[in-house]
Design a protein that fits this description.
single chain; 158 residues; alpha+beta; 4-stranded antiparallel β-sheet; 4 strands
Length: 158
């Protein structure tokens, strides 16, 4: 139940922010939020994280993303079965990961590309532009990895 609720909340928040970007921010334009550090910059990313696979033909790219999303669904489902009910934070983290993956998958289905708009920079260095879904995946995976490495996630038997 936690996984579903968190995932739905992430998808809703992600799609809502992208709706406003699509409605009010022209493609490839920037609006300063905190000058010299943070901008809203609307780009469309046809590839994966950091723009990888952007130049790949869509006839290969689309089936690849569908396959990866199905595989991720199987992994999330399997992993959530071994997380004890009382391990709320791990369930929330898994919901963040799944919600973020679904948020970007929705973009790929409807637009053929992922809508990115958060642009962090310092001086002349710009990080890759990202979105709410990317933040959720990163935070969720970081927590799960930390728990795995420190063995703080007790598991129940299948």
């Amino acid at each position: 139940m936690i996984l579903t609720g968190v995932s739905m909340l992430v998808v809703a928040l992600d799609q809502l922010t992208k709706f406003f970007v699509l409605k009010f921010l022209p493609l490839n334009q920037s609006v300063p939020v905190w000058p010299d550090y943070c901008y809203l910059t609307f780009i469309q990313n046809p590839g994966t994280a950091f723009g990888l696979m952007s130049n790949m033909d869509s006839m290969v790219r689309v089936p690849f993303f569908v396959t990866v999303t199905i595989a991720a669904a199987c992994i999330v489902y399997s992993y959530q079965r071994v997380i004890p009910e009382e391990n709320l934070m791990s369930r929330v983290a898994l919901g963040l990961v799944w919600g973020g993956a679904l948020g970007n998958f929705v973009d790929r289905i409807f637009y053929g590309k992922v809508i990115d708009f958060i642009d962090l920079c310092y001086a002349d260095y710009h990080w890759y532009v990202f979105n709410v879904a990317d933040i959720c995946v990163t935070v969720g995976l970081t927590y799960l990895l930390y728990g795995f490495l420190t063995k703080r996630h007790p598991k129940r038997a299948l």
